[in-house]
Amino acid sequence: MASIEDYGQFETAWCPGCGNHSILEALKRGLVDSGLEPHQILLVSGIGQAAKTVHYLKANVFNGLHGRAVPVASGAKLANQDLKVIVESGDGCNYGEGGNHFLAAIRRNIDLTMIVHDNQVYGLTKGQASPTTQEGFVTKAQPQGVASVPFNPIAVAVAMQASFVARGFSGMVDHLAGLIKEGLAHEGFALIDVLQPCVSFNKVNTFAWYKQRCYNLPEEYDPSDWQAAMEIAMEWGDKIPLGVIYRNQRPTFESRHTVLKQGALVDRKTDLKKLEKILDKFS
Amino acid sequence: MIRTDINVLIGGEAGQGLVTLGGILAKSLVRAGYLIVVTQSYHSRIRGGHNTYAIRASGEKIVAPREEIDLLIALNAETVALHNRELGAGGLIIVDEAFKTINDNCLQVPYAELGEQQFSNVVALGVVSQIVGLELEVVDRALDDAFGKKAPELAEKNMQILNESYRWCSQQGLNFSKLAPASDLRRRLLMNGNEAIAMGALSAGVKFCSFYPMTPATSIALNLAAQASSMDLVVEQAEDEIAAINMAIGASFAGAPSIVPTSGGGFALMTEGVSLAGMTETPLVIVVAQRPGPATGLPTRTEQADLDFVLHSGHGEFPRAIFSPGTVEECFWLTRKAFEVAAKSQGPVFILTDQFLADSARAVEPFDLESLARVEAGILEDASDLPYFRYNIYESGVSPRLLPGMSRHLVVAGSDEHPVDGHLTEDLRVRKFMVEKRLRKEEEIIAEVVPPEIRGDEKPDLLLVTWGSTKGSILEAAAKLRSDSIRVGTLHFSQVWPLVPHQFLGVLRGAGEVVCVEGNAFGQLARLIRRETGFDVHRRVLRYDGLPITPEFIIRELGRS
Between residues 227 and 256 of chain A, which touch chain B (CB distance below 8 Å)? Predict the structure, then answer.
């Protein structure tokens, strides 16, 4: 069994007080609580402050391009289903640049856990609007205030009947670690959108702002009720619900695939005798 | 009278089944021992338009298409008007008598009498088979192979109409020379370039293919998908080309040899991924099946205008190899080789083909699979030595791979500059070190380079130079010119990068006139040769109207016809 120490402790490039520190801690705890060891997991990230997370714990890592963590993770998972594959990146990376991949990942339902650090702003490039930035938010790039309606990842995921949709908050580490553990245990695509303050560039959605609004869904809440989930997904403003908002037992991509049903691709040898038969059909 | 070479062109609308008809005729010819070269030309539409399927066949060695038509099978009246001028002396047009075509050299076929309209293809097949001189039994069997299983209820009817049409034609007393029987009756495969690329990939152990549909590359993925269950691979249609290349990189990183087929516009979306494969040192085979650009260009036609693009694709500097098969056989062997080079050099390797070769069915010698060694994936066998770093430095620049999850070692790959452990670095000395490490891998690629093929007279008066699918046409143009007593040599590049000047500079310098023949408007190979060697080819014969370069085109452009 791995312990928190096995996942290491590294110096980070994040600002003091950044929500990323807590998300990293919750991630490690979620992994330990799931009984996973560093060599059993593959962390895939894109580009952004959140994407740097993968460099601050011990694991297999593929840190790819901005917006493209999901396709890399999908390919890796299809090649080796025995890996626990986690996408770790921010709201700009996953919902902006990688928006099409987000939709496709929900539809495919490959067994991935996607942890989105959602601070409603672009941190790495110093404070431009992200897809989840609220209307009217003023930045140097949007001096008149953001005119676009924010992207609601939870509502989109629930509307598309993603198989696991959850929201956490970096200020509630125990709760978040629990959500990550649940997401990892879920067979299929699991979205965990994590609200986090950006202490440098988001002076509106601060720690106190979230703390005041976030509440845990009550125990009697039934995440298998799609219509109730749609309503919860639209709740934003004075009250922001946290927890597993929706889940279903859709079959995974892997379980429907004749080749993948038989195990990891990476272990298969090529049978040239079979190819000989295929080539015979050309004569 | 007999002929040694015949060129049959079938023309009609999309949806009339001319590809099916052409395919069965091609298969019959190959089974009868003939060599063939198929040229397909089609519009970007599913119904209507004007499409052609041309088969040149001979019992002797042929490697290029021919322009002059001997037998024109017009499935609609428009075909006669469009191709009448291409008909050679003694050529024959096969038309439906219902077209009421007024032309001397027409065979008016009573299609309606010979079969119902849905069988008009079979009528045409019976007629053309008889005229060419194929034995009915061979065609019967090819027809049955095509439809027997798919539509058994029609099998008998098909046979009956085929026999009837064949017999009808034999009673017409046509004065049209039949094709001389083939003497070399060895078993051959009927295969086009894209099929050969798919089969070559399977032989190399491909386990993953991700793609977004785009003509003329799609059939590579479809051919792989058809064999996915039996050959244990995953073929996934991605949401876009960016996803396609990134999925393949992820799969390859995790241990599945991967291929990505696309065409110019799709490849344009992939170029950041190309750079990622270079930086993360992930083996990847990318097929770019060229069609005319810019932008959407002519979606279903052919061109060789993406050499510059592929050579320079991806930001930053990293090694790469680019193969450019000249024949269907080369499509098979060079795809295999591409997987080998990708594994050895741990980076992107390209296959540049085009619509002409993709769709050009040929009679191919069976591939000897028994003698094939397994393509080694370059994975470290013994991982017990601690510690392991993904980008450990070796003299060759190649760092042995381990696969994530396959040992207790951690494998870390990064698109940021990284030290040996794969994590981020801002250490600029490390940066310099890693650039040099990556570039040293080019030596691995150079050691594997397929030298250009030099043929014909030594120190020729005329040297024809080309790359990729134009190979057959320079060979046949050279043969034709030699018969006019000109000393001609040919130089064909089946790998266009890296270039190794000592392999070909001598022949360039020793030739009287050097002519570069290419399917693009810039003369991209000519410019590349000049950049790499300083040698300026004397003349360029370029084609960029969407059609393949033919031997006749070359001779015309040279002013020697």
Answer: none
- Strands, E, within B171-283: which ranges? 178-179, 189-191, 208-211, 234-237, 258-262
Distance CA B554, CA B539 (A): 12
pLDDT the model gives residue A139: 95
Taking an 8 Å cut-off on Cβ atoms, the answer to whether A259 and B233 are in contact is: yes
Structural tokens at position B539: 């003349």
Nearest to B88 by CA among B419, B552, B556, B511: B552
Interface test with B, best of A63, A160, A268, A277 (most B CBs within 10 A): A63
Nearest residue of chain A to residue B377 (CA atoms): A266
Average pLDDT over chain A, rounded to an integer? 97
Shortest CA distance to B355 belongs to which of B235, B519, B516, B211?
A: B519
Compute the distance between CA of residue A20 and CA of residue A88 in angstroms, rounded to an integer. Answer: 11
H or E element, residue B463: strand B462-467
Residues 53-112 of A with CB under 8 A from B: 55, 58-65, 68, 70-80, 82-83, 100-101, 103-104
As annotated, the residues of chain B forming the CATH 3.40.50.920 domain(s) are 453-557
Looking at chain B, the domain(s) classified CATH 3.40.50.970 span: 192-364
* Interval A117-160: pLDDT, tens: 999 999 999 999 999 999 999 999 999 999 999 999 999 999 99
Interhelix angle B152-170/B120-132, rounded to 10 degrees, is 40
* Residue keyed to tokens 């790819």: A64
Q: How many angstroms separate the CA of residue B414 from the nearest CA in chain A? A: 5
- Output the CATH code of domain B192-364: 3.40.50.970
Q: Which of A80, A103, A276 is the closest to B254 by Cβ?
A: A80
Q: Which residue has the tokens 């987000």?
A: A102
Return the structure tokens found at B248.
């393949």
ipTM here: 0.98
Q: How many beta-carbon pairs below 8 A join chains A and B?
A: 203
Query: Alpha-carbon distance A12 to A9, whole Å?
Result: 9
Counting every residue, how long is chain B?
561
* Cross-sheet strand order for the sheet of A214-216: A214-216, A240-247, A164-169, A190-195, A113-118, A84-90, A41-45, A60-63, B412-414
Give the Cα separation of B87 and B241 in Å (integer). 43
Higher pLDDT, B150 or A276: A276
CA–CA distance, B393 with B419 (Å, rounded to integer): 10
Span B227-283, pLDDT tens digits: 999 999 999 999 999 999 999 999 999 999 999 999 999 999 999 999 999 999 999
CATH 3.20.20.70 fits B453-557, yes or no: no
Per-residue pLDDT tens over the stretch B101-149: 777 799 999 999 999 988 999 999 999 999 999 999 999 999 999 988 8
* Length reported for chain A: 283
CA distance B404 to chain A (A): 6
CATH superfamily of the A4-280 domain: Thiamin diphosphate (ThDP)-binding fold, Pyr/PP domains (3.40.50.970)
What pTM was computed for the model? 0.97
Q: State phi, psi for B94 to the nearest 5 degrees.
A: -105, 115
Homologous superfamily of B2-186 in CATH?
Answer: Pyruvate-ferredoxin oxidoreductase, PFOR, domain III (3.40.920.10)
Residues sharing a CB contact under 8 Å with residue A138, sequence separation 6 or more, in sequence order: A144, A145, A146
CB contact under 8 A, A275 and B203: yes
